[in-house]
TrEMBL record:
Gene3D superfamilies to which the protein is assigned, alphabetical: Aldolase class I (3.20.20.70)
Domain annotation Glycoside-hydrolase family GH114 TIM-barrel: ranges: 50-276
Protein name: Endo alpha-1,4 polygalactosaminidase
Transmembrane segments: none
Annotated keywords: Signal
Alphabetized PANTHER family for the sequence: PELA
Organism: Ferrovibrio xuzhouensis
Stored SUPFAM superfamilies: (Trans)glycosidases
Signal peptide start and end residues: 1-26
Length: 282
């Protein structure tokens, strides 16, 4: 019997995927990983089913493209980092706002500005797609809603513009896999435009004030779980992932986080805050 090509296998997998219940479909992406450096060789990811890489610095993609792994390229839609290659050009276009006080060197953007939307749709997303990524990881889309709450007059329409941008990205790339990080205010508007929703830091995170990894208060965690389940009800095809941060020197603590997220029905990964190393599940 002739072997199926990678494309044929993915088509068959997509058909079967639609026939499976949500829990079974989620298992198709386990284990998964987030890694934002380029020093690890491609073979380090051979046992993963989904990987999120930074689109500008990542391991070689070619050895992974024929394997059973989905590759998503990171895109920051609500902020712009000063180290990105086109930062100067973006700054000159007038779309940058204030620097994010929690992330020095990263600047909020006016997502309503046509110049920013054009960069995402006509330049950034195509550059990620043509590298061989199967889709996009959308980050920093909490920012538009945050800014609009801070100043409803100055930033009126930011949340709506963010939702519109996600919708237009889906229209431009109908076969792409799209993962949305948090951005709870957008869920009602974009639930059917995305394939994954990520709950980052919902169970554990790094506390700069305490200089330590800390667990999220139980009441806050239950609220996050409810929000993630709500968007999944709007789109039963969604897979809910979680990304929590914890010390790799505490495997017992990591195991507890994995157990909590799986009990909630989510697909977890636990890493260090820098996301610059692979942390296998203990």
């Amino acid at each position: 019997m002739r072997r199926l090509t990678g494309l044929a296998l993915r088509f068959l997998a997509a058909v079967l995927f639609l026939l499976l219940p949500a829990a079974a479909r989620a298992a198709d992406y386990a284990p998964w990983v987030v890694y934002y450096r380029g020093s690890e060789p491609a073979r380090a990811f051979f046992d993963y089913r989904l990987a999120v890489f930074d689109a500008d610095r990542h391991p070689p993609l070619a050895p992974l493209l024929d394997r059973d792994i989905w590759l998503l390229g990171y895109m920051s839609l609500g902020e712009m980092e000063s180290w990105r290659p086109d930062f100067a050009a973006v700054k000159a276009s007038g779309v940058l706002l204030d620097e994010n006080p929690h992330w020095p060197g990263s600047y909020f953007v006016d997502i309503r500005n046509p110049a920013w939307q054009k960069r995402i749709l006509d330049t950034l997303a195509p550059s990620v797609w043509t590298q061989g990524f199967h889709g996009f990881f959308l980050d920093t889309l909490d920012d538009p809603g945050h800014l609009e709450r801070l100043d409803p007059v100055r930033y009126k329409g930011m949340t709506a513009a963010a939702a519109k941008l996600v919708h237009e990205l889906r229209q431009r790339f109908p076969t792409a896999k799209i993962m949305l990080n948090r951005a709870f205010e957008l869920h009602d508007a974009v639930a059917t435009d995305i394939d994954f929703v990520l709950g980052e830091s919902i169970r554990a995170n790094w506390s700069a004030d305490r200089n330590a990894y800390v667990l999220t208060p139980d009441a806050d965690y239950r609220a996050y779980v409810a929000k993630l389940k709500a968007v999944q009800q709007r789109n039963p095809k969604l897979t809910v992932m979680t990304l929590d941060y914890w010390s790799p020197d505490d495997p017992a603590g990591i195991r507890k986080i994995y157990a909590a997220e799986r009990t909630a029905g989510f697909l977890p990964y636990v890493a260090t805050r820098a996301l610059d190393r692979i942390i296998p599940e203990p």
